[in-house]
Design a protein that fits this description.
Elements (H helix, E strand, L loop, with lengths): L2 H24 L2 H4 L2 H39 L5 H35 L3 E8 L3 H21 L3 E9 L5 E9 L3 H5 L4 E7 L10 E11 L13 E6 L8 H4 L3 E6 L4 E5 L5 H27 L16 E6 L4 E4 L4 E3 L2 H5 L4 H17 L2
Parallel strand pairs: 4-9
Antiparallel strand pairs: 1-3, 1-5, 2-3, 4-5, 6-7, 7-8, 9-10, 10-11
Helix pairs in contact: 1-3, 3-4
Length: about 350
């Protein structure tokens, strides 16, 4: 048995013991009468249930193999019985290996699969108008990827450039597995191409940054209303006559963290406030999650949801039709397909790499 497998099984024993402990706690009168603790324990139990169920099936298969091996080692056992034992060992061995693979995958990736809503922020970086056009290209790439998965996309806020690009665009994506698929996109994206405005045909390098924030459920984060200061003002920019007459723009400031959010996409103050609170919760949630990751020496990969805009993660080279992900040193010569929303090969490679890193950190 490899050291990694021993570590995994030891971790599974801990999870199984914790699950049993939760079962006992929930059945006690003092816990049963406390709605807050019941909700918290039930939620924890729900997250562990799939892993524990498969682990118990795995242990049952191991016990079955041991019983069958005893029959094989018994000199007094009949040949027919030994033949059946050999067949059973083969079946149980396959079942055991399959279950362990499924368990390990669930154990290291389950937290990501549980988050089904993200907020993405794309901002143009160096490169002026060309960077804004690149930010729009990235936005359209993610929209097409989301459409292929039948996810729901909602634009929250945007700031257009003169030539139809985006200085900034913020949008949410909802659907099964959004975080596990899009969580790798946070960081610096660079493009190398000849801009439409370039008369000499020279290749320019421009950049945009992407942040991916998990959008928490109500139970995942609580923000004290007294910790948030709200500022209301008139919207600026495109929007018709309403812009100058109605105070609809909302700015929220979270005092403990210093995080601020501005929202003026809607003419309705109520709608802007609702969107601003969603974005504020996501940013605060990610802020505290990143602190936890640092405290436990980042058991989870830092490239997942780190939102580190300074880290260059990917280059899109138009002359060579090449996209390169620098974190895993992978180059694909299908840039046109990737920008068209076909990101599967990239994301599968990132997931595989990430899974191995997490296994080593168990």
């Amino acid at each position: 048995m490899t050291e990694q497998k021993e570590n995994v099984l030891a971790k599974l024993d801990q999870i199984d013991a914790r699950y049993s402990e939760i079962e006992k706690q929930i059945s006690t009168p003092e816990i049963a009468g406390d709605p807050i603790r019941i909700v918290a324990l039930s939620k924890e139990q729900g997250k562990l249930k799939a892993i524990v169920t498969k682990y118990r099936q795995y242990k049952k298969a191991v016990a079955g193999i041991e019983d069958a091996e005893q029959i094989l080692s018994d000199d007094g056992a009949e040949d027919d019985l030994k033949t059946l034992a050999e067949e059973e060992i083969q079946q149980l061995q396959e079942q055991k290996n399959t279950l362990l693979d499924e368990i390990v995958n669930s154990m290291v990736m389950a937290d990501d699969m549980d988050i089904n809503s993200v907020i993405m922020e794309i901002r143009a970086g160096t490169g002026g108008e060309e960077a804004a056009l690149f930010a729009r290209d990235l936005y359209e790439m993610y929209i097409r990827f989301a459409e292929a998965h039948k996810w729901k996309v909602e634009q929250l806020d945007f700031s257009p450039s003169e030539k139809g690009g985006f200085r900034e665009v913020i949008f949410s994506v909802k659907g099964p597995g959004t975080w596990s698929e899009l969580g790798y996109e946070g960081g610096g994206h660079r493009v190398q191409r000849v801009p439409e405005t370039e008369s000499q045909g020279r290749i320019h390098t421009s950049a945009a940054t992407v942040a991916v924030l998990p959008e928490p459920e109500e139970l995942d984060i609580e923000i004290a209303p007294d910790d948030v200061v709200e500022h209301v003002s008139r919207s600026s920019g495109p929007g018709g006559q309403n812009v100058n007459k109605v105070s609809s723009a909302i700015r929220l400031e979270h005092i403990p963290t210093g995080i601020t959010v501005n929202m003026q996409d809607e003419q309705s103050q109520h709608k802007n406030r609702a969107k601003a609170w969603r974005l504020l919760k996501s940013r605060i949630y990610e802020h505290y999650q990143s602190q936890k990751r640092a405290e436990r020496d980042s058991q989870r990969r830092t490239m997942i949801g780190s939102g580190d805009r300074s880290q260059k993660i990917r280059t899109y080279n138009f002359p060579q039709n090449r996209v390169t992900d620098h974190r895993i040193n992978l180059s694909l010569y299908s840039l046109d397909k990737v920008l068209g929303g076909d990101m599967a090969e990239l994301i599968i490679a990132l997931k595989d790499h990430d899974r191995q890193e997490r296994l080593e950190n168990l």
